Amino acid sequence: MNKKPVLCHVVSETHWDRAWYLPFERFRARLVDMMDHLMQMLRRADFKYFVFDGQMVPFEDYLEIKPAEKKRLAGFVQKGKLIVGPFYILPDEYLISGEAHIRNLLIGHKLASEFGPVQKVGYLPDPFGHISQIPQILNGFGIESFFFMRGMGDHPDKMGLEFWWDSPNKTGRVLACHQACTYSNALMMGIPYREQELYPIDYDEALAHAERAADNLLKFGGAAILLFNNGTDHFFAQETIPQVIAYVNKHSKRLQLVHSTFAHFVKDILEARKDSLISMSGELHGGQYQWLLSGVLSTRVYLKQMNYLAQSTLERRAEPVSVFAWLLGADYPSDLFLYAWKTLLKNHPHDDICGCSVDAVHRDMVNRFEHVMQVSDDILKKSHDFILSAVKFKDEDAGSPILAINTRPHVRSGEVSVSMVIPHERYKGVDLEVADFRGNICPAIIERTATFTEPKFWGEQEMERIKVSFLAKDLPSAGYRAYYVREKTAAKITSFLKSSARAIENEFVKISINRNGTLNIEDKATGQNLPNAHYFEDCADAGDEYDFSDIKNDKILDTLKLKADVHTEILGGYKAVAHVSLKWQLPVSLTDDRTRRVSEMRAAPIEYDVILTSGNRVIEFRTKIQNNVKDHRLRVVFPTRIQTKTISVESKFDVINRPLVPPKTKTKWMQPPMNTHHQENFASLSDGKKGATFFTKGLCEYEAEPRQAGAAYHLTLLRCVGWLSRGDMNTRYANAGPTMETPEAQCRGEHVFEYALMLHRGNWEKAEVQTVAYNYATPVDACVFYHQVRDWKGAARLPEEASFIQIQPEGLILTGMKKCEERESVILRLYNPKGAPAEGALDFAVDVSQAWLNRLDETRLSPLPISAGHLIKFTCPSKGIITIEAVF
Question: What's the CA gap between 330 and 827, in Å, rounded?
Fold first, then answer.
């Protein structure tokens, strides 16, 4: 009886990095040639399929140069020969927000559908690890399979290369197809040096290549159904692949090759193995078969900070405020939002946001981030103006109005900061204060900066520009409140803040500053003490843009023996600040042979502010560092005295418990586990009775170090290197890319970092730190009239305080608020990070005619009950991501 042949799906494809070791325009020139060549191949009857990497942005890039080719491309898609979608770009999964993942798929589907059928395959071959919620995210777009190369750690023996990958709550599931032998295992079969335009095909070598590729895959076990990836980075379609398939099928005694697609491969695997597949869940962040390259979490930190700012401004401020304005009758700027999201997403491929490209690539990124901010700021300005025009403010005698807007869906307090103009003659020579519309005085800082003459059609008016910051307490959920700048009254403000020469204090926390600049932190409620917290350490980094690498016999430098200059002050009656400065010196660079640090030292001054706000348990830090040296990693350290073996860390739509010490691997990994990991908005240490949670703004890499006295939290501020890739590192045995100099990755110059700490009872769930984290990450918005255009007697109809939306319980995290893509309705996205389901309520200020539970792609699933005309009830599963649509 003849043995059944090994079925090999040959998928012609390319993996297109938009920018990497060449800048975007250089790769686009190659893309144009590649696409022109591809369309010649697709005209051939024998060339059945080509899969374009799962992303749509290359089509936009090509059509900007050759717009007339769209119809021809669409024809190939509609015939099923050119496979497109489902993503807009292929992202790094850890360094972008959860909401960005969803918008990437929304936009990818939108663009792909303009050409024809959308590939319903989660093709993510090259990201540096995979987040735990990819199954739930993909399922939300009707995608039930996932292809990946990196991230596999230890696994059961002989499980094969396919398995069920479940979301953390088991509601999402995809067939995971592991490309353990890379996404290039059948590249240019039979072509010497992979140069098909220079060398003739060698069919016997093609046969040998196919046999080797099959042997490499069969050793993993599983079904005799194999995936041959016939392509790699920036490669053209192999012209002779139909002939290669025919030759191998004729001459191989065991292989049967078919020209195929990823979707066809999935179909055959499920038919053969569906009932025998094992299941796994959790993030895929191991390096058993491929390098994980996790040093990218801290490469070019300035890019991560810019991404944080642009991303959070777009999704946490501009979109919610535009929804508020739309509910009041304004137009929703869908086209501008689409442009802003596309521009932002173009910075999210792994070679871009990870910072592992040549310098020119990252200079382009800075421009894109700035463009996103400019568009978001303009959208905010227009939405602010519309809301301002709808509020019925008091007359001029009450003062100059400020509208504070809270975009979080629960009551919160926060600092409001705004620049505004007031009539100079009216307030000349008098002190000013801020009061809410009820007349309650707010602690405030008011800086009078300049006077100027403003032309008006009825004459000139002298105006004064001022900067106002104040504490707005208990702002309405997803709403606003009116405040007024006015002449100061005799009213006094009670403050619980204290400061002395080397200490600051509020109702909850007392901080004293030691001689060396470290902090002794006392939490009054829990009695928890953190002595000698917040010092800096620096070590050599002989790595590259992909990975940190230590050097032999390196001496870790720290600030523990320095003398700090300290002064404290209370500002505006609502925040106590300790200003600390350290004069530090660090080695200038590595030696030429990269084996040690040079003896020459250079100044690396550090200044940081410790900030306590009235009524707030959070300790905020703002640290400024002048980086004048190279080849090093600089971190801030918090010894916590908390005895624990794990740390709870927010990821995308999930909170993950990670061990402080990586577990020993069963086998030798290609890249052993690292001690540094990714965090989103917070990381939390707890022994069950007390906890310490750390919040960051765009700082993505931490290490939780076990110490005898308790765990120490290390936050990476800078990782400075000068090479795209090196082959002489201790932490990786070979190059991960071309050896090219990248001097701007040394991150010379001034840097400012923001992070925070909260001490609390219990663990992160009991302390509801997720709500605190998102409040810290989302500033209170403020808007003002430009005095000359204020309409005192217009059509204003709204009260001076209102809430548009309220969500209960507060522990649910709102990640997105936007107008529906296809319908006249509002979309809200929430996730439940906790270990138990949540019974939720969504309360609108206006009547709701319909409410729907949707998929992530906004497809309606089932109606939701509405009470009292405006209250939507729902259940959010543990670790669940839900999308609610409200129709008015």
Answer: 17
What are the tokens at 113?
């559908």
Q: Which residues pair with 690 in a beta bridge?
A: 761
Q: How confident is the model at residue 789 (pLDDT cuts 50, 70, 90)?
A: very low
Are the beta carbons of 66 and 32 closer than 8 angstroms? yes
Q: Are residues 611 and 745 in the same domain?
A: yes
Q: Rounded mean pLDDT of 273-280?
A: 95
Is the separation of the CB atoms in 217 and 265 below 8 Å?
A: no
List CB contacts of 514: < 8 A, sequence separation 6 or more: 502, 520, 532, 564
Query: Measured between alpha carbons, how far is 565 from 557 in angstroms, rounded to an integer?
Result: 20
What values do phi and psi take at 393, rounded to 5? -80, 165
DSSP state of 391: B
**CA pair distance 440, 315, nearest whole angstrom:** 32
Residue 2 pLDDT grade (very low, low, confident, very high; cuts 50, 70, 90): low
Q: Average pLDDT of the chain?
A: 96
Residue 586: other Cβ atoms inside 10 A: 18
**104: containing domain:** 6-283
Q: Tell me how far apart the alpha carbons of residues 634 and 625 are, in angstroms, rounded to a whole number.
A: 10
Which DSSP state fits 316?
A: I
Task: Please report, rounded to a whole number, the percentage of residues in the chain having pLDDT higher than 90.
Answer: 93
What six digits make up the tokens of 22?
């060449």
Task: Flag whether 88 is in a domain.
Answer: yes
Cα-based angle 529, 532, 533 (whole degrees, multiple of 5): 80
3-class secondary structure per residue, 32-64: HHHHHHHHHHHCCCCCCCEECCCECHHHHHHHH
31 in the same domain as 58: yes
Instruction: Give the H or E element holding residue 173.
Output: strand 173-178
Alpha carbons 272 and 280: distance in angstroms, whole number = 19
Question: Residue 424's pLDDT is what?
Answer: 86
- Model confidence over 688-707: pLDDT tens digits? 999 999 999 999 999 999 99
Instruction: Give the pair of three-digit tokens for residue 611.
Output: 């900030």
Contacts of the segment 490-494: beta carbons below 8 A, 24+ positions apart: 491/433, 491/441, 493/441, 493/442, 493/443, 493/573
pLDDT (tens digit per residue) in 115-150: 999 999 999 999 999 999 999 999 999 999 999 999
Question: Is residue 418 domain-shared with residue 559, that is, in the same domain?
Answer: no
Per-residue pLDDT of 631-675, as tens digits, reads: 999 999 999 999 999 999 999 999 999 999 999 999 999 999 999
For residue 86, whether the previous peptide bond is cis, meaning omega lies within 30 degrees of 0, is: yes
pTM > 0.85: yes
Q: Which residues contact 616 (CB under 8 A, 6 or more apart)?
A: 413, 506, 508
Q: Roughly what angle, to the nearest 10 degrees, separates helices 359-390 and 334-345?
A: 160
CA distance 785 to 48: 62
Total domains, the chain: 4
3 band by pLDDT with thresholds 50, 70 and 90: confident
- Angle at 390 (CA atoms; ends 386, 391), nearest 5 degrees: 120
Both 476 and 514 in one domain: the answer is no
Task: Tell me: do 723 and 858 sit in the same domain.
Answer: no
| Cis amide prior to 809 (ω within 30 degrees) | yes
CB 746 within 8 A of CB 630: yes
Residue 337 to residue 379: CA distance in whole angstroms: 9
Say yes or no: 451 and 556 in one domain.
no
Same domain? For 650 and 724 the reply is: yes
Q: What is the Cα 871 distance to its own chain's centre?
A: 32
- Residue whose C-alpha is closest to residue 805's, from 347, 237, 320: 320
Buried b (16+ CB within 10 A) or exposed e, 721-745: bbbbbbebbebbeebbbeeeebebb
Same domain, 584 and 457: no
DSSP conformation class of 314: I
As given in the structure block, the two tokens for residue 787 are: 């005095």
